[in-house]
Design a protein that fits this description.
single chain; two-stranded antiparallel ribbon; 5-stranded mixed sheet
Length: 592
């Protein structure tokens, strides 16, 4: 089974967790009438905000729905209506999720959840727990997804919300299916069918559709087709094109397994056109990929090529390499804000208790009152110091984790450049890619040192420069005698990185161009503290660089060296004397 679109089955039930199912044609009529009401000039801010929110709910076009939801949010913030503000955020998160904007969706969901938690609105939290579960499914963190869904089930069961309980059960079964636990998934969907008893037809459609996908995974193809066709028939009546397109695509995959290629192509094409007409970007990408594979098997390479182009367009528009980093930042921000809210609540409780104690002790002798207040003040300061200490530790750990992630991302970029180099045929292009990769490696090494040294924000220059130079020499497989005269000092990251890049350029130039015909290559690096600042020298015993060669070799590298030297408020001198000699003086404050 193609896995790329499975996660969307979980998404399709979220919208109806909070809203009843109505047909899209009814939505259009309702939207048109609401837009006419909006043209009136005598509407208050509150009426406009509620009208925007209602239009967003009924609007059949997702982009327009998002526009009106954001308008509603702006007005609710102006009105300081926390509950409706959270509801607007929840609606925006739902729309962004259906549009395929995962990072934006998660960001507003956590904002909405923070408000509901502060107001102790348990039922509203349950719906958001289900949405958060989807994001964990997207990251294939199925255990966390199951935990959030079980929280929702507990709440809906406690308050006897049968429809929402059943929808959450459908989501639970889908997570079981995605995680490979097909037997649990099957039993969960059968439980939904038994409890539903045809009361909620859309839920009946989702249960049949997801059960059909389970049977397809088990290669029970006859049963899979029956269940998928039932789901398509039920949900088509509600014009639920999102879920219908997914079940049609799955039905096409089942026919493909049976080698019925013409029927499979018809179903997949129908699903593709439906997604295209509805503006479902992720489904267009996934269905076009399925059609590529199918047409390759049919040996219709022209069609396969056409669908491959469509797939690539949507794949490029949807992929964002910064998403993982952003999502982790959003989660961390939410947890930190949650802790700060709890600390604020504790402080408020502590303040109230202190005021009550002062009121009760009003008639006591002055000495006793002063002693009591001094005691309370001491305790308060002690508690505050403990909390501040804990927060500093948390910030230090977050900083260490940030360095770790930056290091990993830079290593990933280096690997991508290395892979790209392997695909090139021109030697000049390979050298350009290699130079870029070496610069990225120099940056990555800084963050690895920071991560290894714990909570420090400075780099040991001696260890760092020696490792950088030796790594460069090792990567070119040239035996070079090195001499390091480096004072063991620590530099801040904003100073260490430019110096590292300068050394990277100079050493790379020496390795590439200096030792042609030299029997015993030597390289010397000196870094020491002087009164005038930080002194750095890099020299070799090579053939030296003529002025025209310097300009040629340094077309980019020399510009980079000059720019970094200027950034550090430094001065540069160079000369040819039995090799090439570079000397720098940087303004340096040992306290920075």
């Amino acid at each position: 089974m193609n896995k790329k679109y499975e996660k969307h089955i979980l998404i399709l039930t979220f919208f109806i967790l909070c809203y009843p199912i109505v047909s899209f044609s009814q939505n259009r009529k309702k939207t048109d009438s609401l837009l006419k009401v909006l043209e009136r000039n005598n509407l208050s801010i509150t009426e406009k905000a509620i009208l925007f929110e209602t239009i967003s709910y009924y609007h059949p076009k997702l982009d327009s729905a998002l526009y009106f939801a954001k308008k509603a949010l702006t007005l609710f913030i102006e009105l300081k209506d926390d509950i409706r503000q959270a509801g607007a955020l929840e609606e925006i998160g739902s729309i962004e999720q259906r549009l395929g904007n995962s990072t934006k969706s998660l960001q507003v969901i956590f904002k909405s959840l923070s408000i509901y938690e502060r107001l102790n609105l348990v039922e509203n939290q349950a719906a958001l727990h289900t949405q958060i579960a989807t994001h964990y499914v997207n990251e294939k963190e199925y255990t966390r997804a199951l935990n959030y869904l079980e929280k929702s089930l507990t709440i809906y069961n406690r308050f006897n919300f049968k429809r929402k309980y059943l929808l959450t059960l459908v989501n639970l079964g889908e997570v079981y299916r995605l995680s490979g636990n097909l037997n649990k998934a099957e039993s969960t969907f059968l439980k939904v069918l038994k409890l539903n008893q045809g009361t909620y037809k859309p839920i009946l459609g989702y249960s049949f559709g997801n059960l059909g996908m389970v049977y397809a995974s088990k290669n029970l193809l006859k049963e899979a087709k029956i269940k998928l066709n039932k789901a398509i028939n039920i949900l088509s009546d509600f014009e639920d094109y999102y879920s219908v397109s997914i079940y049609l695509a799955e039905l096409g995959q089942v026919h493909k397994k049976e080698k019925k290629y013409n029927i499979a192509e018809a179903k997949l094409t129908q699903a593709f056109e439906m997604a295209k007409n509805t503006g479902l970007k992720e489904q267009i990408r996934d269905f076009s990929k399925m059609l590529v594979v199918l047409n390759k098997e049919k040996k219709d390479f022209e069609k396969a090529f056409n669908y491959q182009e469509i797939y690539q367009i949507y794949q490029d528009s949807l992929i964002n390499k910064g998403n993982i980093k952003k999502i982790e930042h959003i989660k961390s921000e939410y947890e930190i804000n949650k802790r700060e809210t709890e600390i604020q609540r504790i402080n408020e409780i502590s303040t109230n208790r202190k005021n009550i104690a002062i009121g009760l002790a009003f008639g006591i002798l002055l000495f006793a009152v002063l002693s009591y207040l001094l005691y309370k003040l001491y305790k308060h300061i002690q508690l505050t110091n403990i909390k501040l200490s804990k927060r500093e530790e948390e910030k230090a750990l977050l900083l260490k984790e940030l360095n770790h992630r930056v290091k990993n991302n830079l290593q990933m970029i280096s690997s991508l450049l290395n892979l790209q180099s392997g695909s090139l045929t021109q030697e000049s292009a390979k050298q350009i890619i290699a130079s870029g990769r070496e610069r990225v490696e120099a940056l990555s090494l800084v963050h690895r040192k920071l991560y290894q040294e714990g909570i420090e924000t400075k780099v040991n220059v001696k260890d760092y420069v020696e490792e950088l130079v030796l790594n460069l020499i090792d990567s070119y497989h040239i035996p070079i005698e090195t001499k390091f005269l480096i004072t063991p000092i620590h530099l801040a990251v904003d100073k260490a990185i430019p110096i590292a890049l300068i050394i990277n350029e100079l050493v790379t130039n020496s390795i590439k161009y200096a030792y042609n015909g030299i029997n015993s290559p030597k390289l010397r690096v000196l870094i020491e503290e002087k009164k005038e600042g930080l002194r750095m020298e890099v020299s070799d015993n090579g053939i030296g660089i003529l002025e025209k060669e310097k300009n040629k070799v340094g077309s980019l590298g020399l510009k980079l060296i000059l720019s970094l030297t200027e950034q550090l408020n430094g001065t540069l001198s160079t000369e040819n004397n039995c090799g090439t000699y570079w000397s720098f003086i940087f303004r340096y404050n040992s306290n920075l």
